[in-house]
Design the sequence.
């Protein structure tokens, strides 16, 4: 089931390529935490998406938005992405488990090519408030059609200035436990 806006985000803890553990509960963004789930090293669209995101990281920080991207890749694959992709200082997490993918409501796919992991999540993007409630959720069942991060960051200004509420909070068939 998909996570609905205004619900508490599930706990999340993964390893990060820069070393150590990344825990959602430890994050203290000024306005939002942007969590981007990506398919993994095997996905050229993910590579382009994260490389297109890199020049927006300073803008995000100035808006009080911290950005974190993660996948189910293992350590070696994640470190290869971190070193080979032009993503600057974007924080990357790895080792997302099937149970975590399910808890976050991600679409899950099985490999159809040798270079793909046997199981991996499809893309998603979330904006999480400092109190860990979900403000925005976008799920993809395919690698294309992801939210435009520049547009999402532009909307952050409007949302903050206008006090715009989370939308979609009454979605049936979804879970929310705020």
Sequence:
């Amino acid at each position: 089931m998909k996570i609905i806006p205004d619900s508490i985000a599930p706990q999340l803890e993964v390893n990060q390529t820069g070393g150590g553990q990344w825990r959602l509960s430890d994050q203290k963004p000024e306005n939002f935490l942007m969590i981007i789930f990506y398919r993994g090293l095997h996905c050229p669209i993910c590579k382009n998406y994260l490389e297109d995101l890199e020049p927006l990281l300073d803008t995000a920080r100035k808006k009080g938005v911290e950005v974190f991207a993660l996948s189910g890749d293992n350590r070696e694959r994640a470190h290869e992405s971190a070193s080979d992709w032009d993503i600057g200082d974007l924080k990357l997490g790895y080792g997302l488990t099937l149970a975590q993918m399910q808890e976050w409501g991600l679409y899950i796919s099985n490999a159809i090519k040798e270079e793909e992991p046997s199981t991996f999540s499809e893309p998603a993007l979330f904006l999480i408030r400092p109190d860990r409630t979900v403000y925005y959720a976008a799920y993809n069942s395919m690698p294309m059609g992801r939210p435009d991060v520049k547009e999402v960051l532009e909307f952050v200004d409007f949302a903050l200035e206008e006090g715009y509420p989370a939308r979609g909070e009454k979605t049936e068939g979804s879970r929310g436990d705020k």
User: Anything to note?
Assistant: The chain has one domain: 13-162. The two ends are 15 Å apart (CA to CA). The chain has a mean pLDDT of 95.
